[in-house]
């Protein structure tokens, strides 16, 4: 079941993850499509560890690190933070965790994210969950989320939608060509969406993937 490059990797610019057997599912979809919500249910039912790239960036921003200002500006503008930074945060979180199954939520957000992650870790996802939802519905959800996120305002939401269409959809297309995308109608009520999600984790056709 594991997705791994299992030969020892001695190159300096490669991640220690290349030697750790991990299964990864990327969870993608537009802003407000319900990625975080569904990851909560998947964790409870299937024992994965949930890592949200956005949450990791927000924590880094609040930690007072020197990268904080860069992250804050980019999130406010709905832009995508340089891959190196996001990948380091994901790598650290995975290496610190004893679990071997990870849901990576909101990553890869663009082709640069995707290619850099694969080159650095040698890992390809088991499959990719893609939550499809109209902008109208996503906008409604984001404006009533009430979690105090600085990017949940109409100006930034419009920018995030544009970045999603221009930069994130090509990532879905990349994995679609590899037969790895599981599309979910995310416009339905939360528990109905989860029924469809559950089916993706119990299909029994998950294979070992090596780069
Ligand atoms: N199927 C659903 N129907 C109605 N509301 C939903 C549904 N799924 C999630 N929500 C609500 O929509 C809001 C956004 O959901 P969530 O935070 O899971 O989205 P997300 O895809 O992680 O967004 P982001 O990319 O901005 O982090 C939350 O308030 C959540 O409770
Ligand atoms: N791979 C990523 C993921 C997230 N970000 C930044 C830009 C997003 O607008 C913001 C919030 O992410 P979310 O919580 O909505 O998944 O975080 C990024 O630059 N790169
Ligand atoms: Mg989220």
Automatic annotation (TrEMBL):
Cofactor note text: Binds 1 Mg(2+) ion per monomer.
Matches recorded under SUPFAM superfamilies: P-loop containing nucleoside triphosphate hydrolases
One term of GO molecular function: ATP binding
Catalysed reactions, semicolon-separated: CMP + ATP = CDP + ADP; UMP + ATP = UDP + ADP; dCMP + ATP = dCDP + ADP
Any one GO cellular component localisation term in the record: nucleus
Record-linked PROSITE patterns: ADENYLATE_KINASE (PS00113)
InterPro entries reported for this sequence: Adenylat/UMP-CMP_kin, Adenylat_kinase_CS, P-loop_NTPase, UMP_CMP_kinase
Binding residues annotated for CMP, in chain numbering: 113
NCBIfam families: UMP_CMP_kin_fam
Oligomeric form and interacting partners: Monomer.
Function: Catalyzes the phosphorylation of pyrimidine nucleoside monophosphates at the expense of ATP. Plays an important role in de novo pyrimidine nucleotide biosynthesis. Has preference for UMP and CMP as phosphate acceptors.
Name this protein carries in UniProt: UMP-CMP kinase
Species the sequence originates in: Daucus carota subsp. sativus
């Amino acid at each position: 079941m594991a997705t791994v490059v299992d030969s020892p990797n001695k190159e300096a610019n490669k991640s220690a993850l290349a030697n750790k057997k991990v299964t990864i599912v990327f969870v993608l979809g537009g802003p407000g499509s319900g990625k975080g919500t569904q990851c909560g249910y998947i964790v409870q039912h299937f024992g994965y560890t949930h890592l949200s790239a956005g949450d990791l960036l927000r924590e880094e921003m609040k930690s007072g690190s020197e990268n904080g200002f860069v992250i804050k500006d980019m999130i406010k503008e709905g832009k995508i933070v340089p891959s190196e930074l996001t990948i380091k945060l994901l790598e650290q979180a995975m290496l610190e965790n004893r679990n071997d199954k990870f849901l990576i939520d909101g990553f890869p957000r663009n082709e640069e994210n995707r290619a850099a992650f694969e080159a650095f870790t040698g890992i390809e996802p088991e499959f990719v969950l893609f939550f499809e939802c109209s902008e109208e519905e996503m906008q409604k959800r984001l404006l009533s989320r009430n979690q105090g996120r600085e990017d949940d305002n109409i100006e930034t939401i419009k920018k995030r939608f544009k970045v999603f269409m221009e930069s994130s959809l090509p990532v879905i297309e990349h994995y679609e060509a590899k037969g790895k995308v599981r599309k979910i109608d995310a416009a339905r009520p939360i528990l109905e969406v989860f029924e469809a999600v559950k089916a993706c984790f119990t299909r029994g056709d998950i294979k070992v993937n090596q780069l």
